[in-house]
Amino acid sequence: MADLRELSEEVAMASRMLYETGLADASTIERGHVSLRLPDDPRRFAVKALGPALSQTYAEHVVIVDVDGSKAGGPPELNLPNEVKMHSCLLRERPDVNSVVHVHPRYAVLMSVLQERIAPMRIEGLQMFAEPIPLFPSPRLIIHEKDGAEVARLLGGHSAVLLQGHGAATVGGDMEDAILNMLHLEEQAQMNYLAFCAAGSGHASLTPEQCAEFAANMRSMGEAVHLKPEVAPTPRKPSGVWKHYAALVGRAEG
Ligand SMILES: [Zn+2]
Question: How far apart are CA 204 and CA 185, in angstroms?
């Protein structure tokens, strides 16, 4: 069994990161969570309990939950977050996913209400936007199993799903990927909103051909002799983004 205290500290740190990145702030600072599947018990996960602001979440605020959405550990006085079914259903339906992020970020919410497509506008997270991001067409909270199951169905094999007028959920193989996917979603949503204001519906975006060219060019990086490492490749993870925010929320290493 993994050290639950250490795992709770990781989840709490990632929760504080949601505030530090601006993905949750002001009136949404207590709305949202990041969950992490237990490495030694894949039918359970850790997530912030109901109550604390994301900016003030520490290991003692983390609960353990079964993928059926029932509490399986943590202090008895802590209650499950209202939208625990978002996490339980997505983690149950996507065995490749180990972390789910749910927040209410303003530009993603705005675009979901406008029902304007979030098209690829910049290279960060480009591959996520090659196809339209699926939309759950209601602002209601994901309280019940049927809604959690519907969000999981809409998500399918994608990395993100929008909840109209409410927020979004992103997934990843770990918390770093899940949070970075949410950052990409919010930043691309902001770019699209600005373009929508400037040029209206149907504004220009990067074309499928440009996206494919970008991907092919990235794949060719291994052939660039001048980029060959002198000693060993630089590890891809933790990324500089993760290390930056991990340091800001109280941990030097990601
Ligand atoms: Zn929510």
Answer: 18
Query: Residue 157's domain is classified under what CATH number?
Result: 3.40.225.10
Give me ligand 1 centre to Cα 100, in Å.
12
pLDDT at 252: 47
Q: What amino acid occupies position 3?
A: D
For residue 163, how far is its CA from the centre of ligand 1 (angstroms)?
8
- Assigned domain for 241 exists: yes
> For residue 216, what are the domain limits?
4-248
* pLDDT confidence of residue 142: 98
Q: 143 C-alpha to center of ligand 1: Å?
A: 9
What digits encode the pLDDT tens for the residues 5-56? 999 999 999 999 999 999 999 999 999 999 999 999 999 999 999 999 999 9
pTM metric for this prediction: 0.95
